[in-house]
Write a structure and sequence with these properties.
The chain is of the alpha+beta class. The chain has two domains: 129 residues, Phosphorylase Kinase, domain 1 (2-Layer Sandwich), CATH 3.30.200.20; 85 residues, Transferase(Phosphotransferase), domain 1 (Orthogonal Bundle).
């Protein structure tokens, strides 16, 4: 009965679940990783993001789409990550590895004290992570500018330094994947993050710094990319 009710509710959000994912959501609910999907936060080509609840506590469910993901791009990133030496170009295996990679990155970052959502579980293409926000999800930095941009930038640099000490580089950091929650940054979307042993790690770090600086320069904050890099890596 519960399974039928969930499926009827999911239909109201459009054709966003394939049968494989739908069945696995039911399994996860049965294992008490969540008890109800509440509402869609983002329905995209690569991932669907929903708020959910477990015993009244909100969570986030991130689902990588199996049919429309750019798995070629995912594979190109994964093949240079030393943690995935045996990755092959199987469509689903690449997407499952991509989700598992984000889970591992979040776990490692969280253990190092980086302000990221706590990861709870990864099951194939489904991630269950901490909900960041109050009544509404915390906004992305691009949509909600900080009251004190200079102070906020310093906090971001601190988080990047902690991440670097943990042996990781985000790889896609920008105002699109930094949340502004109570005037403090929370870093999200870590599927592209990789270890410092990756051949392209330095290039990714330079790009992260450039993206962050470009945003804050528009807010009137002076940014010296080389000085920021020294603070992160020193």
């Amino acid at each position: 009965m519960a399974r039928r009710r969930w499926k009827e509710e999911w239909k109201t959000w459009g054709d966003v679940f394939d049968s494989f994912t739908e069945n696995n959501l039911v399994k996860l609910a049965g294992r008490e990783y969540f008890d109800e999907l509440l509402s869609p936060i983002s329905i995209g080509k690569e991932a669907n993001i929903f708020s959910a609840s477990l015993h009244g506590e909100r969570r986030i469910i991130k689902i990588y789409r199996l049919s429309t993901c750019d798995f070629n791009r995912m594979y190109d990133y994964l093949k240079f990550d030393p943690r995935f030496p045996a990755i092959n170009k199987s469509h689903r295996k690449v997407i499952f590895s991509w989700a598992r990679r984000e889970f591992r990155n979040l776990m490692k970052a969280r253990e190092a004290g980086v302000r990221v959502p706590t990861p709870f579980h990864c099951f194939y293409n489904i991630l269950i992570i901490e909900y960041i926000g109050d009544d509404k999800p915390a906004p992305r930095l691009k949509d909600y500018y900080p009251a004190d941009p200079g102070k906020f930038l310093k906090e971001i640099i601190k988080q990047m330094r902690l991440l670097h000490k943990a042996g990781l580089v985000h790889g896609d950091l920008s105002a699109y994947n930094i949340l502004n929650f109570n005037e403090r940054p929370v870093i999200i979307d870590m599927s592209q993050s990789t270890t410092l042993e990756n051949t392209f790690a330095k290039e990714y770090l330079d790009r992260d710094i450039k993206n962050v600086c470009s945003f804050f320069k528009k807010l009137g904050v002076k940014c010296d990319e080389e000085k920021i890099k020294k603070k992160i890596t020193g």
